[in-house]
Structures are given as C-alpha cells and as structure tokens.
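Support case: iron/sulfur cluster complex. Customer-provided input:
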Amino acid sequence: TKPEYIVSACLVGINCRYNGGCTHISKIEQLVVEGKALAVCPEELGGLPTPRNPVEIVNGAVKDKFGTDQTIAFNLGAQKTLEIAENANIKKAILQARSPSCGYGKIYDGSFTGNLIDGNGITSSLLEDNGFEVFTDQNWESKEID
Ligand code: SF4
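Agent response - structure generated as follows:
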C-alpha cells in the first residue's frame, strides 16, 4: 500500500497540540494503520515545542497570544510537510480544522476568543498552492475519498 494522504498527527492520537493533547478520530487513525496515510505535525516539524503557546494568524501575521512572531517556524513546518508529501507522491491531505497551520476554509480570527473567519492555515495554504486537495477532519468523509 502506498500512502495517499498526509494527515494532521493530532487527529490520530499523537499528543502534539499546543496544549499537549490531541483529538483522536478512529477512522483517520485507521488510514495510518493501514499505510494509506502519513501523520505529520507541521508545528513540531517547524521546531516548536509541545506544549507551546497558542498561535493564531493576526492580521496576516503568525503570532502567539503573547505577541511573539512565529512566522519562521510555521513556514518551515509547512515547507517540511510539503517535502514529506512530495517525496511520497502524495497529493491529498486531511488536516485539523481551524488550526493556524492545518485549518482549511475557516480559521480562528486572531483574537484568541474562538471566533472564526474565512481563511487557511499556513501549511494548508502551501499545500493548496502546490495542487493538493485539502480536506479537514470535519468534511473529509462527505467528500469523495476512497
Ligand atoms: Fe495538529 Fe496541525 Fe496543530 Fe500539529 S500543527 S497540532 S498537526 S493542527
């Protein structure tokens, strides 16, 4: 079996979220177990520790809630994720909704209050720009994924 998808590592039980936790979606984990998906965490690939301060995209800038700019780490993580996917000939991704790295379609608005705006995370944007089909954990089952 060759992997077809990149998936956010935090969706498959890996404790890589900013708060040290994860979300655990059994059907997505199954894709990894079956060799159909590779799990990556762009923020860890970018060199950020876990746990870490929460980050949002604030007026186009990547900042943690204390105002520290994290653009370099986020861009590096996105680039590494793209390289991992391209090396494995993967062109599809299932990513964690709303995240400043992995979110797609809707992300948090930069106010750290849980409000959402239209937009994509840094990794999702880079993957889309490189021709990937990007899904989130919220919509992947309703799209035609085989
Ligand atoms: Fe999950 Fe993506 Fe955030 Fe890593 S960067 S914790 S994979 S949402």
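The chain has one domain: 5-136.

Case will auto-close in a few days if no follow-up is received.
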